[in-house]
Design brief:
- Helices cover 60% and strands 1% of the residues.
- The protein has 704 residues and is mostly helical.
- It has a domain of 233 residues.
- The strands form two sheets. It has a two-stranded antiparallel ribbon. Strands 3-4 form a two-stranded antiparallel sheet.
- The longest helix is centred in the C-terminal third of the chain and has 33 residues.
- It is globular, with a radius of gyration of 26 Å.
- The relative contact order is 0.09.
Length: 704
């Protein structure tokens, strides 16, 4: 894939392990937050992305660094004022009458705990490459780095190992061996052993006597420095003081006092002391780890502990605890990602970029934006194996950072030109391809253009290398087809979004709890992009199989199998999402269990034509009076929330089964693609059993 851009186009063992480590972190720890650890589903639901009235925000939020930035951006859009010097009183007086909306992802939140593991990896790779006076620390291998990142997953539940929570497996050492091999599992054991020794020595004030092997000493130091960094951001953002009632109660049940003048101080002090002791361990590299941290993070935290008012300096777009710390690390300061597209170090830098800009980012599900992007790259590795080019994984991680890291969404000034400066023109061009233009039809038009192409296109064929470095980076034209990397990212991105909806229907709110918007999104929004792309891939696979001698040079047996797995993954995900939507419709109309099963069976039964389906299901089971009864009971807000009615905002939406019937037709077309490509052997589990589990999960979430 995209072999013209690289001297090393294949996914190496080290890169495979890093992507699997990212996936394991998301699977086990994406519901953990800085300081407080694992949080409830109610907490996750309260954080999901939404547009909020500025007037509904707690006024105390606006006295924080981030809050001042928000209110200035919203109420003084034409004045680039210094938020710290603006008189808040006149602005606060405008709030009750303000109709301004802000994205909830711009509000400060406790950072996902996996952010610390990403930062840990960046710190350690910096020591690996630039430690020992820039000669490199050879003993700090990529296996040690991966082991350090996943060390705390032992004993946790892998939520992606099954559909139903009760069937999910617990991570143990056998799982680590299966995923990563004996070498990394041995390092996990060693790291945890040495870390326990360090904690014991710290509690007994004897860390100065502790002697550890040099690679592990650096790991222990990076573990505590990365934890201190995420605690420092929470302290600077004053998150605890501005938690809502639900979160405050949950935090207080864990033993935290949110009402103190500086509630994060005890944890900031503890992690500062731990990090100071860890950085002083014999064997910790000074120039590549201790020095950059002491002159940024440690110095700024010490100031905040001595003078609490200075904790505001920890955060902000150029805050000392985040921006300055990250940019002082050798991997960020010295490594040229733009000239090393397929390096494992570039993957680490991409993950840090995503984490730095989208730490507040939450999706409409229970997933963080960071977790979503890491999972896309990890699924690509699972589907394509060695056929995956690392530069594609970099693009997959970064694909949303421009849209969601922008000032209106996350409060940052992320842009395609920033990506170009950090990662070079090729990556920026591929991210641009996946960045939505202003037109809502852009992705659909690009997919249609892709279907009309003679063959699949590589990024360098689409843009050429001169344009990679000279072009004005912006979202690509609606007339330009997707490249192969763009196709793969789009398909996996949609499947992961469907997966989130399947796993988290209870976290969704308002329109997204009901069949209307979900089926409209699936058929008209994402479907009109994904369907042409799947058809195009199917055609290319069939062409390759029909005449391998004349097949396009970018395809190989390895890549063909990856594309088949990709299509199978997409088809299964869409079918699962459809089943859940049918279960939602069943509730909206008050169907019995037998009637629900009848509807689901008929929906996927190709021997029943659409007129028969409409007669036996739509006109017989989905009756208007049944819906009215559920509206009266409060199960459904109004008819327009349901897939079988128009989405008009008028008081009298009209019955309209057209989209629902087309949605079923799309499901039957998916079955035809599976048959054309003989995909049954690729599907790991029985499809009917899988659909039944989706319904069971929906019932479980609904009951909870």
């Amino acid at each position: 894939m995209m072999s013209g851009m690289s001297d090393s186009p294949h996914c190496t063992r080290d890169i495979r392990n890093l992507l699997r480590a990212y996936n394991l972190l998301v699977a086990t720890r994406d519901d953990e937050r800085a300081i407080v650890g694992r949080v409830s589903r109610d907490w996750l639901q309260s954080e999901r992305e939404d547009w909020l009235q500025l007037s509904a925000i707690n006024p105390s939020v606006f006295s924080t660094v981030r809050g001042r930035e928000i209110i200035c951006d919203a109420l003084l859009p034409d004045l680039d004022a210094n938020p710290e010097l603006v008189d808040l009183a006149p602005l606060l007086s405008q709030l009750p009458n303000s109709e301004k909306l802000i994205n909830s992802n711009s509000l400060a939140k406790l950072e996902p705990s996996i952010a610390a593991e990403i930062l840990l990896g960046v710190m350690l790779v910096g020591v690996q490459r630039y430690g020992n006076r820039r000669c490199g620390c050879k003993g700090l291998t990529n296996d040690v780095v991966a082991a350090a990142m996943i060390r705390d997953t032992i004993g946790l539940t892998d939520k992606y190992s099954a559909v139903l929570p009760r069937n999910c497996k617990t991570i143990d050492m056998d799982t680590i061996v299966e995923l990563f091999g004996e070498g990394i599992s041995a390092h996990v054991i060693e790291i945890n052993h040495h870390h326990n020794d360090f904690i014991d020595a710290f509690e007994n004030s004897t860390t100065h006597k502790l002697t550890l092997p040099r690679p592990y000493a650096n790991v222990i130091a990076a573990i505590h420095a990365s934890q201190l960094r995420i605690v420092a951001r929470a302290a600077g953002d004053e998150v605890f003081a501005n938690l809502d009632g639900l979160k405050k109660a949950e935090v207080q049940r864990k033993g935290f006092n949110c009402d103190a003048d500086f509630p994060e101080r005890i944890w900031l002090d503890l992690h500062y002391s731990l990090t100071k002791a860890a950085l002083a361990l014999e064997g910790v590299d000074y120039g590549a780890l201790a020095e950059p941290l002491e002159q940024t993070l440690m110095m700024s935290v010490a100031d905040a502990l001595e003078q609490p008012g200075k904790r505001r300096r920890l955060v902000g777009r150029r805050g000392k605890a985040v921006y300055a710390t990250h940019n002082s690390l050798p991997l960020i300061e010295s490594f040229n990602a733009s000239e090393n597209l397929n390096s494992i170090a570039t993957l680490h830098v991409a993950a840090l970029e995503m984490m730095q800009y989208l730490e507040r980012g939450r999706r409409k599900s229970a997933c963080t934006m960071l977790g979503h992007s890491l999972r896309i790259a990890a699924v690509a590795e699972k589907l394509f194996g060695e056929a995956l080019e690392p530069s594609f994984a970099v693009t997959a991680i970064l694909h949303d950072v421009v849209e969601d890291g922008s000032r209106p969404i996350a409060g940052y000034d992320q842009s395609l030109n920033n990506i170009k400066r950090r990662f070079g023109g090729p990556v920026a061009a591929m991210v641009a391809e996946l960045t939505d233009a202003e037109s809502s039809l852009a992705a659909q038009k690009k997919a249609e253009a892709t279907l009309l192409c003679d063959s699949l296109i590589l990024p360098e064929q689409q843009y050429n290398f001169d344009r990679f470095t000279e072009m004005e980076i912006e979202p690509t034209s609606i007339h330009e087809p997707y490249t192969l990397g763009g196709i793969i990212t789009k398909i996996i991105d949609t499947a992961i979004s469907e997966e989130e909806g399947i796993r988290d229907p209870d976290v969704m709110t308002s329109w997204w709890r009901h069949s209307g918007i979900r089926i409209y999104w699936s058929y008209h929004v994402k479907g009109k992009v994904i369907r042409p792309l799947l058809v195009k891939l199917t055609q290319e696979i069939e062409r390759y199989n029909a005449d391998k001698e004349s097949a396009t040079s970018i395809l190989s047996e390895e890549l063909i199998e990856g594309l088949r797995s990709l299509i199978s993954f997409s088809l299964t995900s869409s079918d699962n999402y459809a089943v859940q939507n049918l279960a939602i419709i069943s509730d909206e109309y008050g169907l019995s269990g037998d009637e629900r099963e009848q509807m689901i069976d008929a929906f996927f039964n190709a021997s029943i034509d659409h007129s028969q389906f409409k007669s036996e299901i739509v006109d017989t089971l989905l009756l208007e009076q049944r819906l009215k009864n559920k509206i009266h009971e409060g199960v459904v807000p109004a008819e327009c929330y349901v897939a079988l009615y128009t989405k008009s905002a008028s008081a009298h939406p009209k019955p309209d089964a057209d989209t629902f019937i087309k949605y079923r037709a799309a499901a039957l077309e998916r079955a035809k693609i599976a048959k054309r490509l003989a995909l049954d052997p690729i599907v790991k589990t029985d499809s009917r059993a899988g659909l039944a589990e989706v319904v069971s999960l929906y019932d479980l979430r609904k009951a909870a």
